[in-house]
Amino acid sequence: MVSRPGAAKYIAAWDEQTRGLKGDSLKAAQWRLAKEAIEEGLGGMDMAAFLEHVQGKTGSDLQQWLVSHASSCLYHSVDREQAKEWILALENPRFQTDLLFFMGTDYDETDGPEAFLKRISLPAAREAFLSGYCVNLAHEKPEEAVKTFLRWNEPGKDIGALGRVVGILPEFADFDGIAESLHALSDAKGVGPVSETLLRRWASLDPGRAAEYAVSNPGTVLPDHLGSVVGVWLQSSPAEAASWVTGLAPSPFKTSACGVMVAGLLEGDPAQAWTYALQMEDAGARDAAIETVHTAWAKLDSVAADSALAQVKRRTSDEH
Prior knowledge:
This protein has a domain at 233-320. It starts with a helix and ends with a helix. α1 (5-20) packs antiparallel against α2, α2 (23-39) packs parallel to α4 and α12 (191-205) packs antiparallel against α13 (207-216). The protein is mainly α. It has helices at 5-20, 23-39, 44-54, 60-75, 80-88, 93-106, 114-117, 123-138, 142-152, 163-166, 175-183, 191-205, 207-216, 223-236, 238-246, 252-265, 270-278, 283-300, 302-319. The longest helix has 18 residues, at 283-300.
């Protein structure tokens, strides 16, 4: 990196802090200096010089904060093209990848991402830029964002980074349609976690619809994914979640949903958690849940817990 006059004072201050401070005092001083550089408008290749000097010399939280803010300073500057070349030439892959993700969220060039994507040689960095670009696009054009990612992601490559996109979809997104497009890619690497992230996001906006979609598509949605939906629902509307889970017909989906209910109710209401443990269809999962709930319940009310366990054992004995 060629010396840049605009960055010189920040680099000198950084080095002075490193020599004179340690521990929490050093961390606090580094945070102040980084924020000062951003707030005072250090941009373009001056920001690049500062970033290159300090990268690898900060805590991970400061590094991530600085990269997320500095990438915009680099992109929205008169040195934009030179800054792009600098990023593309970086030898630290993690540093380059982080910068390109955040640059993608700012990318607003009319020819779209294709031309710049072709200039990125590292696959992980290319994926990061593409996911950043699609995250930004998803705020206003969610369906187009998903299609764009799938169009430009390398054929056969893991699509896990699409999770960053579907994890921030707005309420007006066509969740049904996006879910179907993912299920059409059932053989793609990484599609399972992306589908689960989509369902969790859907559940944060419309949990009832997300849950109904999950149980209506047993060939493409895993029971554990329904569990994730119920977990989100339990946080926002516990009574509604409880009522819906109770009404489910016995199935692997109900076992998964009841497992989440047990975990969510265990500390606060073990007696209620017990009722969901008993509703599990899978015998192994049910027995494990019963044991877990009994242990927790007995700490609060051993008489009630032991009585409930005795009833289960009597019923089991009668059935055999």
